[in-house]
Amino acid sequence: MIIALDVATMTGVAVGKPGNAPTTWSVSLGKPGDDDAKFSHALVLTHKLIEEHRPRLLAIEAPVGGPKASHLLIGLVACIRGVARNRGVAVATYPINSIRKHFMGRALAKRDYPALSVYAAQKAMKSEVMQRCRLLGWDVPDDNAADAAALWDFACATSGNQTTPAGGLFR
After folding, report:
1. Would you tell me which CATH number, out of the four given (3.30.420.10, 3.30.10.10, 1.10.1760.20, 3.40.50.720), belongs to the domain 2-158?
2. Do residues 61 and 6 lie in contact, with contact meaning Cβ atoms separated by under 8 Å?
3. I want to staple 55 with a disulfide (CB 3.0 to 4.6 A). Which of 3, 33, 97, 126 is the partner?
4. What is the pTM of this model?
């Protein structure tokens, strides 16, 4: 069993066994401005997911931005990693470009949408990921869940499984 989390205030979740379709959903970690509540919700969410699904791996999309990465995002990821460590579950973080290259066959980026603003380009990329999930027959309720599903697929493909992944490069 692998759990994948696209960590943000609205966190995408994908859970499943390699070779099967993941179950996906999104969870709100809290209201704007209440970072402590978000950290607490991240801790509780991770604990419940591990308790319910008993994963061998918890995959997380690596925070984007280098030294300019969101301190909230880094804190949320730290909470999740700490719970996983405490519960004896392996954690892997994967860069978004690697995930997209695997799942979409190319590392989608702003440069692929030169006429769009950064925000509009991000929405377009997320839309393409959702479309890919739906082509695979995966039920994804929103773009956060779709991003988690893409991450889950990448984790299945790169974590030592013997199954054939559904994603782009390995088809």
Report:
1. 3.30.420.10
2. yes
3. 3
4. 0.88
